[in-house]
Every structure is written in structure tokens, then in C-alpha cells.
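Hi all, posting the design record for the shared folder.

TITLE: backbone redesign
STEP: 1 of 1
STRUCTURE INPUT:
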């Protein structure tokens, strides 16, 4: 998974401004979708800013092929727990694939 914000930035452009640059957003992506990571398949993980507060927020999975929200979690902790469970099924503690 590629974490957004690790790329070289133009001087004077903040990450949040860059995140909402229309040329970097996929067609049909909601205006309130705050991108935080790309999957290896080009799908995007992000926050739903309409349902986010200062303490936590709803996490969404944007499918680039369908152009729709494919999955959602009520908060970051639930999303991370699900990701860890998937990882546990795919690799062992040495990093070898199962």
C-alpha cells in the first residue's frame, strides 16, 4: 500500500491542497473523500470528511474500476483491525506467504 504524502511536493503546496487537486482525483470520486493511501491495484483508501470529526472518522475504500465506494468502516481502528486480519491470513510472522 502506498501512503500518500511520500512524494516530492511543489514548494508552497500543502498536502491537503494537493489532495483535492482535481487532476489527481479519479472521475466520480466524492468531493468529501480525503485520500490517504493507494492499494497495489490502484484503488484508494480515504476518509469520508462528511462523517469525520476531530477524534475519528469513517474510512472508505474507493474502487477505481467501478468508480464507487466498495467498502466502509465506522472508524480508523476498525479498518486497521480488518487489514491486520487480512495480513495475518496472507503471511506468517517471518513474512513468508501462507
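Okay, here is what came back for every position:
SEQUENCE:
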Amino acid at each position: 500500500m502506498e501512503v500518500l504524502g511520500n512524494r516530492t511536493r511543489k514548494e508552497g503546496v500543502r498536502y491537503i491542497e494537493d489532495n483535492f487537486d482535481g487532476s489527481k482525483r479519479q472521475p466520480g470520486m466524492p468531493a468529501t473523500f480525503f485520500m490517504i493511501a493507494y492499494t497495489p491495484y490502484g484503488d484508494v483508501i480515504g476518509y469520508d470528511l462528511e462523517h469525520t470529526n476531530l477524534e475519528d472518522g469513517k474510512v472508505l475504500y474507493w474502487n477505481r474500476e467501478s468508480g464507487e465506494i466498495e467498502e466502509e468502516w465506522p472508524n480508523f481502528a476498525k479498518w486497521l483491525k480488518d487489514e491486520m486480519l487480512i495480513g495475518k491470513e496472507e503471511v506468517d510472522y517471518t513474512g513468508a506467504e501462507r
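COMMENT: The chain has two helices and five strands.
Let me know if anyone wants the other runs.
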